Amino acid sequence: MSASTPAPARPVTVAITRQVRPEDEILMQAWADAGSTMARRFDGFLGSGWVRPAAGSLDWHMLYRFASPAHLEAWEQSRERQRWLASGQGLVQATRVEHRTGIEGWFDEPEERRAEDLGQRPPPAPPRWKQMVVIFTAFFPTSLALAYLLAPVTDGWPVVGRVLLTCAVAIPWMTYVFLPFVTRLYLPWTTGRPRR
What is the mean pLDDT of residues 77-99? Predict the structure, then answer.
């Protein structure tokens, strides 16, 4: 991929936890089905569904997925969706909404969760001192390598120019390549979960 080619947009999954009174279950199913039917008509729609952690639970976990953030925004800003949400007023209450692409944070929960795990809270982020160790493990060798590699090019440059060039190289490298690799490498230590 050339430097001028933008990274391809990644699909976005929206997970919503809604609370529904037991007497409104049938209405809830009809309302959720109507929303899915409308979303299917929008470009980039990849699917939707809902699940309950147990019979009689007030919590309903609803998921929908679009091919890119732009497709998701078109659906979320649409007049159809606004009217559909308004029709659910008094029927459902959204208690948590999450947008997941897998790159919002280096210490995100896994991109995929089993349906039976949806009723459980996601595992907490690692303690900050562990995050600091992981970031240092990626940042130090990157900074050291760039200091040596860019020195012949930036010799005589003002400090601002040297730092600017270093950041322009280091930040994409760290964000998209090296830090995700180091984070996966340390995953058993930081979270107690196996590597993905």
Answer: 82
